[in-house]
């Protein structure tokens, strides 16, 4: 029974740790911007050109759709 409680704590620590890391990553992306991060990854050749273009395409569509919704109001 003692090992069951230890396992439950370990799972809880992983969940809480993942949430904290996700929150920090989201904050950094919000402050720096997706395009700036993509440009750095392309410059360092960490991210291939085709993948970076695909990500850029999706992020610009999302921004354009938000702007269109705001202009209709």
Fold and architecture overview:
With 73 residues, the protein is mainly alpha-helical. The protein folds into two domains: 1-32; 33-73. The chain contains three helices and no strands. The chain has helices at residues 2-32, 34-43, 49-72. The longest helix has 31 residues, at 2-32. The chain is elongated and about 45 Å long. The model has no long low-confidence stretch (mean pLDDT 80).
SSE map:
Blueprint lengths: L1 H31 L1 H10 L5 H24 L1
Helix pairs in contact: 2-3
Looking at how many chains there are and whether they match, the oligomeric state comes to single chain
- How many β-strands, per DSSP? 0
Largest sheet: none
Strand content: under 5%
How many separate structural domains?
A: 2
Supply Rg. Answer: 19 Å
Mean pLDDT, as a whole number? 80
Question: Can you give keywords for this protein?
Answer:
mainly alpha; single chain; 73 residues; 2 domains
Write a short abstract of this structure.
With 73 residues, the protein is an all-alpha fold. It has helices at residues 2-32, 34-43, 49-72. It has 3 helices and no strands.
